[in-house]
Amino acid sequence: MSDDIRITRNDEQNRYDILVDGQLAGFSEFEEDAEGRLVFPHTEIDPAYGGRGLGTKLVAAAMEDEAARGDVVVPECPFVVRYLQNNEVPGLKIAWRDSAVETAEHASTAERTPGDEGVGTPRA
Q: Which among 3, 4, 16, 26 could bridge 45 via Cys, Cβ 3.0 to 4.6 Å?
C-alpha cells in the first residue's frame, strides 16, 4: 500500500507542508529577509512519520518550487544546507552563509528521535 504524499506551499504559515494521507507529517519554514531572499531556518518531520525519506522529498519539492519562482534561497537549516550541498536544483539561486554551512558540516547525522534523516527535533 502506498501513501498519498502531497507537498504544498503554505503562505499563511510561511512554510512548505508535507501531507501523508491528508495528515500533516512535517514542514520546512521560510521567512523573507531584508533583501527579499527566502531564508529556510528549520525543517521538521513528525517522528511518527520518520524513516520514509519525507524530509528529502519535502526539501526537494520546496527547492524546485523556489527555483521555478526565481527566488533567492538562504539555507540555514542544516538539513536544507546538506541537501543543497549534495543535490543540484536547476535554476535555484542560493545565497550561502558560511556559518550555516559550518553548522551543517558539524551537525550530527544520528537520529536522537525517530525523526527523518536527522530532522524531527522541534525548535525551542
A: 26
